[in-house]
Fold this sequence. Notes:
This protein has three helices and no strands. By secondary structure, the protein is mainly α. The termini are far apart.
Amino acid sequence: MLLIAAFFTDNRKKAGEMMLRVILELFRIITIIFVIGMMMGLIIHSIYAIFGITVENTTGGWIVGMAIFPLLYVLYKQYSGFYKNGKQVKLSNRTTTILLCFSVLMLTVAPLFR
């Protein structure tokens, strides 16, 4: 009987740890998307403002927003999180380069869509 109680106590502890890791991973995802995404958008719009380009309320603004998502995805995948499993792997160098080049291309052509 004592062995059965120890088994269930151990599983509860593991389940608690797993739930904490999932909550921390969700917090990391939300932080990356909202906080870092907002900061990237602010920096990009500030760079455009230096050159006298405004893309707010235009199609170019949407393209800038969509260009931030591959950057956020690379940032998310390159740095391991709290949720550990065998399926989570870093991006290859080629995939990272392609995504970053695609984002830079979108940021470069965004001012053309006013």
